[in-house]
Predict the structure.
Amino acid sequence: MTDRDGPHPRPQTIAAAHGVATDPAFGAVAPPLYMSSTYEFAGYEQPRTYDYGRAGNPTRDLLAAALAKLEGGAGAVITSSGMSALDLLVGRLRPDDLVLAPHDCYGGTMRLLKARAARGHVSVRFVDQSDEAAFAAALEEVPALILIETPSNPLMRVVDIAALCARAREVGALVAVDNTFLSPAIQQPIRLGADYVVHSTTKYLNGHSDVIGGAVIAADAVQAGELRDWGNVVGSTGAPFDSWLTLRGLRTLFARMEHQQANAMAVARYLERHAAVSKVHYSGLAAHPGHAIALRQQRGFGAMLSFELAGGVAAVRQFIEAVKYFTLAESLGGVESLVAHPATMTHADMGEEARAAAGISDSLLRLSVGLEAEQDLIAGLEEGLAACGSE
Ligand code: PLP
């Protein structure tokens, strides 16, 4: 903080201006990029603040401090990917520790948890966290860590973070919320009782589809310190240049989210009315089962949505070949609009049985709605939908 900062800046101010005048050497307005892998000791047995880049880096620490502030946490660790952020938490557990994860979590998260369990590193149980009875039964097994993803990927199911955290506390379980889909601009799980927030910074926090990165934010300073040490032990800390790019993206986070979620709402409303679409999953729609919870715990509904085509898999192919302005690609959260087919792309590794159990059908398409003109996006979708059922 500098003398130009007030005592309690709002999140928008932190995101836009974090890093301003944090360069004590030259007063650089943009955060400086320190690429050095190592640092000179002041003398024999006299390390300075930084000694080695795996353990600590000034640019990475600026990003960690900004994310901790935005999420309302005590500290953060910046990692090389969203997966390594999740593994920072999971990899520290012991073989008899149980992880309770959503049955419809991101496919890569499921793959990681299953791979860790298959090697005997942890125990894992997948459960429908919106099913109160199933969640209560799973709690009886006393999990060490509960992982929550809300809205979930790709079905946008919303669960009540505060309620699940309260239940978790009763059995002494820690809760980590993957906040990738909304970002702290829209949802702050630590304020709702979570112990950790996990991000794939690859998505909205960086926002420009040019970085793979991750972060874990801890509510508690001791846990933040332990995670930071663990990041150094396993060497999964993020690269300085990636942190610098993510700091650059972060400055426009609030403006991007606002515009992108307005576009997403327009797209959801358009799809909801279209005859070729059998279902739209977006928590901003009044018909969405999680709408009331979303209104309570989110400041908006985000820019991710999914929908099902009435014409099944044949229509999926026709849509993808005809749609304009939505690029067929994995990932999400960038300024450009993307379309993905979870069954053959992001969630292919999950296997047919797990996909069916989670409700991910072959006719489901996921959209990451970007910053393009709303009219173009709708016109582009219209072309895709008009092709469904042709031939
Ligand atoms: N969490 C969620 C919700 C995701 O969607 C993803 C990737 O798509 C990840 C974690 C993993 O992030 P990364 O690809 O940066 O490793």
Notes: The mean pLDDT is 95. DSSP finds 13 helices and twelve strands in the chain.
